[in-house]
From TrEMBL:
Name of the featured protein: PaaD zinc beta ribbon domain-containing protein
InterPro entries for this protein: Zn_ribbon_PaaD
Superkingdom to which the source organism belongs: Bacteria
Domain PaaD zinc beta ribbon: residue ranges: 2-38
Native organism: Solirubrobacter ginsenosidimutans
Amino acid sequence: MRCPFCSSPAVERVAQWGGQIITAQWKCSACNSYFEAVREDFDEPAGTLPPVG
C-alpha cells in the first residue's frame, strides 16, 4: 500500500471501515493525508472467497 498523494509506503490503517463497506481508512505518515482504499479481504480475485451462507 502506498499513499495516493505522495507515493510514500509509510501508511497505516486507522479504521477498518471507510465510507463504503469495501473500503478502509488509511493515513500517510509522510504527508499526513487521510485516504480510503479497498480492504484487503475485498482484493481477492473472484472465486477465492469462501461461500456465503
